[in-house]
Write a structure and sequence with these properties.
With about 300 residues, the protein is mainly α. It has 15 helices and no strands.
């Protein structure tokens, strides 16, 4: 999850002032947390609270189904509850209305908000099927359009595959086969690429930025250099890059200084939650991939 937060913060100052090169200071005084980080933390909170009620993703199929129903309910609750605490952080118009609704309903969105906040689902799932089902549960409360759901699923699947040691070639093949045709390079599309808030105009580009990278930091720099919706592009790229590379301690610690005490509290709870799950999974046969942080 920290990968998405880092990408959001690093990309925040370029969202409406694109810089289409990689030679920029990663963090500056102009950087700040946006809705991407806040809603990612809200999804993490929803998953953690769900796990307090229902033993997560373990046991009989009917138990797992109850888990996804509860996760959807918790996402509805915490996206609004936490979202209301930060009314000026950059929400889209429809989402801003949704968080204030007395009886909130999904609004058929295919905006890239579906993909930028979904990374906790990819990190907590024990199987690819669980990653997809959990991504659907936390996404459909708002972004229930087919393209919105697809964007969230693609990111969750890419994270899950990266966590479990799949190669970039394997990830590219899976995303191209089942979600988006990755038949372009960042260098080729950079000059013509413009601001795009849809999943279909953001998710494939963000995943491609990861696939062309050589390190976590390089992935963030490539995503931001593309331009467009820089913070969201980099948040999505960062979430997959974290799963594949891990995150350097220095970058993680610098990014965390941008979180206020409330958001940092959710992050710290997530760290403890993931470490606890990691300890439990070490008693099982669940494989782990290259990621050193396991969603921290």
């Amino acid at each position: 999850m920290i990968g998405a937060i880092i990408g959001d913060i690093a990309g925040s100052r370029f969202e409406f002032n694109n810089y289409k090169k990689k030679d920029f200071e990663l963090f500056s005084e102009e950087c700040h947390v946006t809705d991407d980080s806040i809603l990612t933390l809200a999804v993490a909170k929803a998953i953690m609270e769900t796990c307090k009620v229902i033993r997560p993703l373990i046991g009989k199929p009917e138990t797992r189904e109850k888990f996804y129903v509860m996760a959807e309910w918790m996402a509805n609750k915490y996206l609004r509850e936490i979202g209301r605490k930060y009314p000026e952080c950059g929400y889209g118009g429809m989402f801003a209305q949704w968080i204030q609704s007395v009886v909130p309903k999904p609004y058929n969105s295919f905006g890239n908000g579906a993909a930028m906040r979904v990374s906790p689902a990819g990190f907590v799932a024990g199987t690819e099927g669980e990653a997809i089902s959990l991504a659907d549960a936390v996404t459909q409360v708002t972004h229930n359009h087919e393209e919105g759901m697809k964007g969230a699923e693609a990111v969750a699947v890419a994270i899950f595959m990266a966590r479990h040691g799949k190669s970039k070639m394997e990830i590219r093949k899976r995303i191209s086969s089942d979600y988006y045709l990755l038949d372009f390079t960042i260098d080729v599309i950079r000059d013509a690429y413009e601001f795009n808030e849809t999943c279909q105009g953001t998710v494939p580009q963000a995943i491609e930025a990861f696939l062309e990278s050589t390190s976590f930091e390089d992935a963030i720099r490539i995503a931001i250099s593309l331009g467009g919706d820089s913070d969201t592009l980099a948040a999505i790229t960062g979430s997959v890059a974290e799963a594949f590379y891990g995150v350097p301690d220095e970058i993680r610690e610098r990014a965390l200084t941008y979180l206020d005490s409330y958001l940092r509290g959710i992050y710290d709870d997530w760290v403890a939650f993931i470490l606890d799950r990691k300890g439990n999974n070490n008693k099982s046969t669940e494989p782990e991939g290259k990621n050193k942080d396991h969603g921290i």
